[in-house]
């Protein structure tokens, strides 16, 4: 197995096992996530990618093994990691600005200060003007942008994204993928991205870890290369992009049939 | 037969007479004593116990059965027992109100606390919420629509309990108007009294609904359904 490591890894997973009773969800998984890059965890359903992400987030304990984030072993949630949820996880009774500022509110930041920070990220994700709307007044895409703004507001070094775009429509999803590329370029953070979409993974990632199901293990690490600097519209037609997508599908195909 | 079933207008006329004479007001003053005390105890204690049950498996195991039994037990059979232990005064009447009101408040509150969205709790934990934060900022607001629904149901039941205690324990207040009117065959007054209770209960529940709306100013408490 070929784990590429760079000199600084923001997250290192070492020999992690996770059992749910008798079911072995993760088996001896080791993986590195280079700092400042976006690494995708790609694989079919049930291959443990969300489980691994939650273990890294500190929301689930590993049965054995360890996870090290920026030199410190993970024993629970921490200020160095922020999570973006697949089902948005917004407070339905709170307006957009309170939702975005919620992470800061839980950290005890004063109201005026946290609302100022929230305002900035609300405009970053393109939701200016919607500060006092409630989640049920927003579309799915807008709700996810609130979730993203909330995760960005706490200024964590590692951003964990659990299939963040799978609950929105295709057009919005494509737009989000483009925006994510921009975000990775401009924010100095490490992104861990779980997805089951091959095209999405190849489009946004600096590194893709292919996970195979039951028990979960890393089968391959791919680093899509040259087309990253092309403009967003040309990437999907780049030959290297198309080759990698094809190659991954051939690898995964046998596990779905 | 028609004598026992007066027309609506006849009953309203009787109600008017009761109002003008002031009888209805003194009656309510009497009824309200065990009612108010019983409802306040049921609401605050009931919600408090309900929250505790929702949060603690052990407390649930210990205490829930009490309320399940309380809800199913036939009150008419329990009242003589209450009278034997607590006499025929205010205490027994407050007990009756509580027995009627508390179970539904407690069980609804406990159920809604326990049913808080796992995703929201996880979100709270991921953003470093302490247990207290999560209870106050996630669990309770999430549970509040059902807690208030439980309060509405419970308090209505409490009203019934107050009148029941006046019919069965000692005749005072509005229950007395009902009993007395029936005993002298003044059916219009009897129906008038019953009608007034219904109106009072509806008004009270309306006030409760307004309080709930004021406290939770979200957009109609709609829940986000993805």
Mean pLDDT level of chain A: 88
Helical percent range of chain A? 25-40%
| Major sheet attributes of chain B | none
**CATH homologous superfamily grouping of the largest domain in chain A:** P-loop containing nucleotide triphosphate hydrolases
Instruction: State the strand order across the main sheet of chain A.
Output: 6-7-8-3-9-10
Total discrete domains of chain B: 1
Structural class of chain B: mainly alpha
Total domain units of chain A: 2
Q: What is the average of the pLDDT values of chain B?
A: 88
CATH topology of the largest domain in chain A: Rossmann fold
Counting copies of identical and different chains, the oligomeric state is: heterodimer
CATH architecture grouping of chain B: Orthogonal Bundle
- Which regions of chain B have little confidence, pLDDT < 50, spanning 5+ residues? none
What proportion strand of chain A? Answer: 15-25%
Identify low-pLDDT runs of chain A.
1-6
Please give the count of helices of chain B.
9
Structure in words:
The complex is a heterodimer of chains A (257) and B (226). Chain A is of the alpha/beta class and 257 residues long. Chain A contains nine helices and ten strands. Chain A starts with 8 loop residues before the first strand and ends with a helix. By secondary structure, chain B is an all-alpha fold. In chain B, helix 5 (90-114) runs antiparallel to helix 7. Chain B contains nine helices and no strands. Chain B has helices at 8-21, 23-55, 57-72, 75-86, 90-114, 118-126, 131-168, 173-183, 187-215.
């Amino acid at each position: 197995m070929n784990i590429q490591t760079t000199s600084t890894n923001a997250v290192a997973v070492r020999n992690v096992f996770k059992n749910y009773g008798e079911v072995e969800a993760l088996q001896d998984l080791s993986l590195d996530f280079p700092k400042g890059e976006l690494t995708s965890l790609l694989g079919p359903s049930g291959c443990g990618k969300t489980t691994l992400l939650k273990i890294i987030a500190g929301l689930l304990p590993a049965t054995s093994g360890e996870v090290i984030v920026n030199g410190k072993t993970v024993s629970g949630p921490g200020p160095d990691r922020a999570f973006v949820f697949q089902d948005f996880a917004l407070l339905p009774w709170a307006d957009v600005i309170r939702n975005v500022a919620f992470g800061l509110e839980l950290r005890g930041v004063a109201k005026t200060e946290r609302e100022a920070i929230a305002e900035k990220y609300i405009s970053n994700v393109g939701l200016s003007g919607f500060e006092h709307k409630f989640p049920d007044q927003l579309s799915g895409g807008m709700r996810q942008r609130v979730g993203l703004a909330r995760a960005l507001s706490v200024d964590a070094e590692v951003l964990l994204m659990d299939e963040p775009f799978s609950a929105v429509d295709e057009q919005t999803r494509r737009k989000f993928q483009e925006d994510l590329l921009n975000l990775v370029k401009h924010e100095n953070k490490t992104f861990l991205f779980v997805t089951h979409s091959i095209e999405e993974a190849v489009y946004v990632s600096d590194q893709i870890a292919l996970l195979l199901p039951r028990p979960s293990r890393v089968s391959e690490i791919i680093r899509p290369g040259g087309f990253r600097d092309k403009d967003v519209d040309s990437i999907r037609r780049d030959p290297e992009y198309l080759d990698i997508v094809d190659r991954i599908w051939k690898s995964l195909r046998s596990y779905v049939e | 037969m028609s004598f026992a079933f007066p027309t609506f207008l006849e009953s309203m006329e009787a109600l008017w007479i009761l109002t003008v004479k002031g009888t209805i007001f003194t009656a309510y003053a009497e009824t309200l004593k065990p009612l108010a005390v019983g409802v306040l105890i049921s609401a605050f204690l009931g919600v408090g116990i309900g929250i505790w049950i929702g949060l603690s498996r052990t407390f649930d195991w210990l205490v829930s059965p009490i309320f399940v039994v309380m809800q199913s037990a036939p009150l008419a059979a329990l009242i003589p027992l209450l009278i034997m232990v607590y006499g025929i005064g205010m205490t027994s009447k407050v007990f009756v109100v509580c027995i009627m009101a508390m179970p539904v408040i407690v069980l609804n509150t406990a159920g809604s606390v326990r049913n808080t969205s796992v995703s929201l709790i996880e979100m709270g934990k991921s953003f470093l919420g302490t247990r207290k934060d999560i209870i106050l900022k996630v669990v309770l607001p999430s549970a509040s629509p059902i807690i208030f629904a439980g309060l509405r149901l419970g308090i209505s039941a409490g009203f019934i309990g107050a009148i029941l205690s006046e019919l069965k324990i000692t005749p005072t207040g509005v229950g007395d108007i009902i009993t007395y009117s029936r005993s002298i065959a003044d059916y219009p007054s009897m129906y008038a009294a019953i009608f007034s209770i219904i109106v009072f209960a509806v008004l009270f529940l309306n006030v409760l609904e307004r309080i709930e709306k004021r406290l939770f100013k979200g957009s109609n408490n709609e829940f986000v359904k993805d």
